[in-house]
Amino acid sequence: MDLVPALEEPLKKVLGPPTAKVMAEFLGLHTVGDLLHHYPRRYEERGQLTHLADLPMDEHVTVVAMVADARLHTFASAKAPRGKGQRLEVTITDGSGRLQLVFFGNGVHKPHKELLPGTRAMFAGKVSVFNRRLQLAHPAYELLHGDGDETVETWAGALIPLYPATAKLESWKIGKAVQTVLPSAQEALDPLPATLREGRGLLPLPEALLKIHQPHTKADIEDARARLKWDEAFVLQVALARRRHADAQLPAVARRPKPDGLLTAFDDRLPFTLTEGQQKVSKEIFDDLATEHPMHRLLQGEVGSGKTLVALRAMLATVDAGGQAAMLAPTEVLAQQHHRSVVEMMGELAEGGMLGGVEHATKVVLLTGSMGTAARRQAMLDLATGEAGIVIGTHALIEDKVQFHDLGLVVVDEQHRFGVEQRDALRGKGKQPPHLLVMTATPIPRTVAMTVFGDLETSVLDQLPAGRSPISSHVVPAADKPHFLARAWERVREEVENGHQAYVVCPRIGDEEDDPKKSGKKKSPEDEAEKRPPLAVLDVADHLAKGPLHGLRVEVLHGRMHPDDKDAVMRRFAAGDADVLVATTVIEVGVNVPNATAMVIMDADRFGVSQLHQLRGRVGRGSAPGLCLLVTEMPEASAARQRLNAVAATLDGFELSRIDLEQRREGDVLGQAQSGARSSLRVLAVIEDEEVIAEARQEAAAVVAADPELTDLPALRTALDALLDEDREQYLEKG
Questions:
Q1: Helix-, strand-, coil-residue percentages of the chain, each rounded to 5
Q2: Are 473 and 616 in contact (CB under 8 A)?
Q3: Which of 13, 78, 245, 462 would suit a FRET pair with 198, their CA atoms being 20 to 30 Å apart?
Q4: Beta strands in 488-592 (DSSP E)
Q5: Strands, E, within 562-668: which ranges?
Q6: Which uninterrupted H or E stretch holds 348?
Q7: Using CA atoms, how far apart are residues 338 and 343, in angstroms rounded to an integer?
Q8: Is 454 exposed, middle or buried (0-12, 13-18, 19+ CB in 10 A)?
Q9: What pLDDT is stored for residue 493 in this prediction?
């Protein structure tokens, strides 16, 4: 690769092994270039102080403040029984609030000498609460007084950059490391084509890097960020545009439904008319299917907006045109459920080759890992001969042994559970690349769709079909108001007495302790803080059956049950032979029991916003109104409670997905979780920078159309290679 050696230099050489090791382990930074692209999170003005009043709990913070007073106390303890224990308490202030710092034992001597009243310093540590007051215990600090000390030189300029830091490496140490490598910024290759950069009045890259790390004015920061946002948006969009361009070059078989075939027969059977949205989206899909290159479409719709019906009609159109359609579901429970509902919707049209089958009928087969050998062999035979027009399954469908007669369409349900390797393996099953339809029930803001699924065209279903009932949602603060929780169980009883059913969802199964690998796992800070593991299905089910829901038929469902047992439980619940189903999130996706009207989510703060929205979509699927209760022990002021209040306040999934995005770091959204690669977005905020992303997408499409191989833009090609190293190539495609 023709990358500039200076930026490829390993940090180990420049900063020494110990610092480089911490940077690699905790911040994912390995080279000089990585460090130059580790931008400050915010800036402090030297004369100004941080707002101590709004410090976040349990987070690692850096504050600039002045010492108001310092007191040394002695005390007796187990380690120092003769009253020789020492505790230094320092109060710092910034005009907006005060914060207590504490140092113990031998750690008191240095701060006692240095932190005198009137001293100004930067302090870094984790905010905790002691005696109802915020404090930092043993914070690291850096004095900010100018007495010929090199600190002031290092922090030259009026603005102090504060970097995303870790407990192992404070912001100012990162700042010093950045100053060491900053001269190399001059050699940074500029990925933006000169015409684009000049046309939009953006800084050259070396200058932007200099200004973001060493700004003299706020305008410097703005200019630098504007430039760096463009880099990120543009390079990412070029990668996606190249993928779209490559896909458009692939040949595919056009699939047009025949006039009076299976699709027409199916539409005639439907007991209702399609919503406007379903008709519009179906038309987009049919237009794509009729072209000679593969469709790549993302179908996103609210929980219950009828995506499955739209997908099924596309599958029937493909069968009409002589091809086969495959639907991939993320779990066996879901594959079985899709299979059941497709067969029910199609009726005798799904009985191809059987006595009851009618003209145009086809065979619908299920293929999952846990099927018996004979059933599996028969299903595979039906696929190979073309007898089965539709197959529904888990990734068992992707195994080498599975052969299709003529695979024309692949429908992937719940995109975020499928990796690109699987998508590609399934594509490879067709004689020519099949058409691809990806369905997701997690509504995605337009910009995220452009950024993450930029290689897919997007269709949105945003109306609910007629007959869907409203769902009311409430937060139940179990710790502050225990009687609210008691009332929640009474509400569940009332729903059951009225002939309905209820779900209770818990974050954990409850038999993990048997697994030595799991119990030795490090706890997350939240778990440590709460000193209580998340509530478990088995314990909660037991407690409810013996206590608040005594006398009701309570069943349990979780991912570690045998598939047959899971299926049996789901069938009993669907048939109304169980009143309350206590489950993990296995019910999150696609479970359809119209008679279930209530859902109680225990430890709701342990779930993400979109997950809560998905879960809630399991109730209110019939004619009776739905009720969703979000139970939490988190205090009123916590971020977790605000998140739950937001979920309770709106049923609009697109609105929630924005909230979710604003609260999580973008990295999660951009597939960091799936790829293990750090998010490549550092200054681009997917929600705020909608315009930049939309414009970058247009510019990228134009650049790629004119020069698909980027022959005339070597620096852009280099930036792409850096973005799309192996990991990231995957992450882009995984979405």
A1: 45, 20, 35
A2: yes
A3: 245
A4: 501-505, 554-557, 580-583
A5: 580-583, 596-601, 626-632
A6: none
A7: 8
A8: buried
A9: 93
Considering only residues 399 and 174, tell me which one the structure prediction assigns the higher pLDDT.
174
pLDDT tens per residue across span 433-484: 899 898 887 677 766 777 766 777 888 887 766 666 778 899 999 888 888 9
Residue-wise over 625-639: b if at least 16 C-beta within 10 A, else e? Answer: ebbbbbbbbbeeebe
pTM for the full predicted model: 0.64
315 vs 667, which has greater pLDDT?
Answer: 315
- Per the CB < 8 A criterion, the answer to whether 177 and 23 are in contact is yes
Stated as kind and residue range, the H or E segment containing 260 is none
Q: What are the backbone angles phi and psi of residue 397, rounded to the nearest 5°? A: -65, -20
The predicted model gives 108-135 an average pLDDT of 84
Q: Can you tell me the distance from the alpha carbon of 62 to that of 144, in angstroms, rounded to the nearest whole number?
A: 14
pLDDT at 621: 78
- Contacts with 601 (C-beta within 8 Å, 6 or more apart), sequence order: 504, 505, 607, 612, 615, 628, 629, 630, 631
β-pairing, 296-301 vs 159-162, is: unpaired
Compute the distance between CA of residue 221 and CA of residue 214 in angstroms, rounded to an integer.
Answer: 9
Bin 332: left if φ > 0, else alpha if -120 < ψ < 50, else beta.
alpha
Question: Which structure tokens are listed for 244?
Answer: 């779209």
Residue of 637, 334, 640, 271 lying closest to 467 (CA atoms): 271
CA distance 599 to 419: 31
d(CA 33, CA 38): 9
Which 8-state DSSP code applies to residue 368? Answer: -
Residues in contact with 680: Cβ distance below 8 Å, sequence separation at least 6, in sequence order: 232, 235, 236, 670, 723, 728
Q: Report the C-alpha gap between 181 and 6 in whole angstroms.
A: 9
At a CB cut-off of 8 Å and minimum separation 6, what does 145 contact? 119, 120, 152
How open is the CA angle 468-453-229, to the nearest 5 degrees? 120
Pairing between β-strand 363-367 and β-strand 42-45 as defined by DSSP bridges: unpaired
Encode 226-256: b = buried (16+ Cβ within 10 Å), e = exposed.
Answer: bbbbbbbbbbbbbbbbbbbeebeeeebbebe
Per-residue pLDDT at 499: 93
Contacts with 76 (C-beta within 8 Å, 6 or more apart), sequence order: 82, 83, 84, 85
What token pair was written down for 62? 């850096």
Q: What is the mean pLDDT of the chain?
A: 80
Rounded to an integer, what distance in angstroms lies between the CA atom of residue 207 and that of residue 505? 53
Q: What is the pLDDT of residues 495-532, one digit of tens each?
A: 999 999 999 999 888 765 444 444 444 444 344 434 57
Indicate the helix (H) or strand (E) that contains 714. Answer: helix 714-723
Q: CA end-to-end span of the chain, whole Å?
A: 26
Which of 345, 337, 340 lies closest to 271, judged by CA? 345
Contact (Cβ atoms closer than 8 angstroms) between residue 527 and residue 556: no
- Reply yes or no on whether the pLDDT at 24 is more than 80: yes
- Residue 582 and residue 540 in contact, taking contact as beta carbons nearer than 8 Å: yes
> Using DSSP, how many helices (H) and how many strands (E) does the chain show?
30, 21
The pLDDT tens digits for 62-95 are 787 889 999 988 877 666 666 677 889 999 887 7
Task: Give the strand order in the sheet containing 626-632.
Answer: 471-477, 626-632, 596-601, 501-505, 580-583, 554-557
The sign of the dihedral angle between the CA atoms of 121, 127, 129, 133 is: positive
- Strand 596-601 vs strand 501-505: parallel, antiparallel, or unpaired? parallel
CA 28 to chain centre: 19
Give the model's pLDDT for residue 724.
Answer: 66
Q: Which residue has the higher pLDDT, 333 or 193?
A: 193
Q: What is the DSSP letter of 10?
A: B
Token reading at 237: 């969009």
